Amino acid sequence: MSDSKISIVTGGSRGIGRDTVLRLAMRGIRSIFTYNATREEADTVAALAAEAGAPSVALQLDVGDSTSFDRFAHEVRGTLAKMGAEHFDYLVNNAGTSSSSSLETITEAEMDGLYNVHFKGVMFLTQKLLPLINDGGRIINISSGLARFAMASRIGYGPIKAAVESLSRNMALELAPRRIAVNVVAPGPIATDFSGGIVRDNPEVNKAVAAHTALGRAGLPGDVGPVIAGLLSDDFGWVNAQRIEVAGGIHI
Question: What are the Cα distances from residue 197, in Å, to 73, 159, 191, 206?
Fold first, then answer.
């Protein structure tokens, strides 16, 4: 049991982030994870992580508001102290928002919001937390299959995730002197409440996703969380600056 290891997972109260926190807990890795609005969901995840043997702590954070990052870093420092640590080991930049706009309909405000959450948030939250991550640690940024292929009404989301992938490679290069590896996990369509739950709750969309996926179904959070947890382990210590698509072979 690696109870000395600590992760930070943004957006850890729901969907892929929730599954990641719990998969890490099963490996004995404690988490500081964030939620945006719903404390009850976060408390449930914390309780489940504790049951799995890895007490974890939920902190509120809006990753689209970079002015809050100094406060958050201060809270992380205090939380680490309560956990008997000065530093953490793994950062998973998972929190995100969806967009279903086309080139004709997307607004500048919506694009700014995507940039603030997915790109600026990842860059500057990581920057604020760098003094607290151990040398030899690992960072995973979440991208999307839509960074590789195009779909209708994803004119903002896909390109901003492609930017995250470029950012990740640059982060891997700059953090190499500290032996901090940076990789990307790119899920395909996942049946969660993301994007209004369209993949999970709309049978036609779910069927269409399955039809374009080699393994014949839409993804589940439990398909992605174990991959993230695995990439953070020593088993993947020599994997760096890579993009791992977890999508069952969609649009091969």
Answer: 31, 21, 7, 10
Q: What is the DSSP string of 185-229?
A: EEE-SBSSSGGGGHHHH-HHHHHHHHHTBTTSS-B-HHHHHHHHH
Kindly report, residue by residue over 4-49, the tens digit of the pLDDT: 899 999 999 999 999 999 999 999 999 999 999 999 999 999 999 9
Element holding 174 (H helix, E strand): helix 157-175
Write down all domains in the chain, each with its CATH number in brackets: 6-246 (3.40.50.720)
Distances (CA, A) of 13 to 32, 41, 130: 11, 6, 23
Question: What distance in Å separates the CA atoms of residue 102 and residue 152, rounded to the nearest whole number?
Answer: 7
99: how many CB neighbours lie within 10 A of its CB? 20
86-116: pLDDT as tens digits: 999 999 999 999 888 999 999 999 999 999 9
